[in-house]
Amino acid sequence: MFDGIVVGWNESESAATALDWAVKRAGDTPVRVVSIVPGQETGSDYLSPTSVESQVRVHLIDAAERMRARYPNARIDTEAIRGAVVDELIRLSVPGTLLVVGGTPRSERRTPFGWSVATRVAGARTPGTMAVVPSNVFIGVRSGVVVGIDGAAEGSAVLDVAIDEAQRLREELRLVHAWAPPPEWQDVFVPDLGFEDTLEDMRHGILRDAVAAASQISGLAIRESLISEAPAIAVSEAARGATELVIGNHSTRGVRRLQLGSVSHAALRDLHAPTIVVRS
After folding, report:
1. If you placed Cys at 221, which of 9, 11, 172, 263 could pair as Cys (CB 3.0 to 4.6 Å)?
2. What is the CATH number of the domain that holds 254?
3. What's residue 186's pLDDT?
4. How far does Cα 57 stand from its chain's mean position?
5. Long-range contacts of 194-203 (CB under 8 A, 24+ apart)
6. Where in this chain does the entry annotate a coiled-coil region (predicted)?
7. Residue 133: per-residue pLDDT
8. Integer Cα distance of 27 and 96 in angstroms
9. Integer Cα distance of 90 and 79 in angstroms
10. Of 93, 110, 138, which marks where a domain is finished?
11. Cross-strand pairs, 227
């Protein structure tokens, strides 16, 4: 599904884990390890060997050599780029390429809140796919590819990525659809008898459509879950112990996103598994 993999490198433990995860999954897909040096390109000076850039390049080469020793068939290139970290990562995250960055689980972060580089890139208004890999990804036993199903028009792209990942990993595909009545209904709307049952039927229909699409893949093990809970919470909890989580980022925008947070933002803040975000 991906023609290339780009890994954001910054010498941190989480970046090292992300690089290992990316090279391990790459097979014969080329991997480009990129370190972004703050600053702007200034003509021929861009390639001048400043102390910072030369040190970055040495560390990049060392990281690539360690991966080549561990995965002899890996195709790895390195590059140092000047620019703003978030802007450059968004530029590198294009259709057909998987951008991989490291992430820190909430239990290991200094503060539980905030917008990390990963959440900012995931929230970009441009198409592309990125994976955020927690630093504890190789600890414990993991199983299953969880995919959040929300019924949006762009959801087919999310499901396609999840199916491809489940096939590649030979893992069970776990389709999760979650919903909860908005709290404002309690104050401004009193539903008719049976209205909530109708909504439940609609939600079952969304999940059935996704199951039907996935069931066309021969030999793919599928499990479905309809959860009556806020989607951000349900999807994040479903990812505990999963091999991967696949989600989209199209559910909320603008002020509403700042107030409530999108499912993808919540999942990346409460990172439990390598999380692939499909930006539409």
Report:
1. 172
2. 3.40.50.620
3. 54
4. 27
5. 203/177, 203/179
6. none
7. 95
8. 16
9. 16
10. 138
11. 178
- Across the beta sheet with 222-228, the strand order is 76-82, 31-37, 4-8, 97-103, 128-134, 275-279, 244-248, 145-148, 173-179, 222-228
Q: For residue 243, which amino acid is it? A: T
Q: Considering the entire predicted model, what is its pTM?
A: 0.85
- Verify that 238 and 115 share a domain, yes or no: no
Structure tokens at 23: 């090279």
Same domain, 178 and 127: no
User: Domains in the chain: how many in total?
Assistant: 2
For residues 11 and 134, membership in a common domain is answered with yes
Looking up tokens 């595909």, which residue turns up?
Answer: 173
55 close to 12: Cβ distance less than 8 angstroms: no
96, 162: one domain: no
256 contacts: CB under 8 Å, gap ≥ 6: none
148 and 90 in one domain? no
- The DSSP-derived string for 184-207 is THHHH--PPTTHHHHHHHHHHHHH
Do 2 and 35 belong together in one domain? Answer: yes
Q: Are residues 272 and 174 in the same domain?
A: yes
User: Is residue 70 scored above 60 in pLDDT?
Assistant: yes
Whole-number Cα distances in Å, 14 to 38, 72, 108, 111, 263: 20, 22, 11, 16, 22
Which residue has 């002020």 as its token pair?
A: 255
Residue where a domain stops, chosen among 79, 106, 138: 138
Structure tokens belonging to residue 112: 């539980």
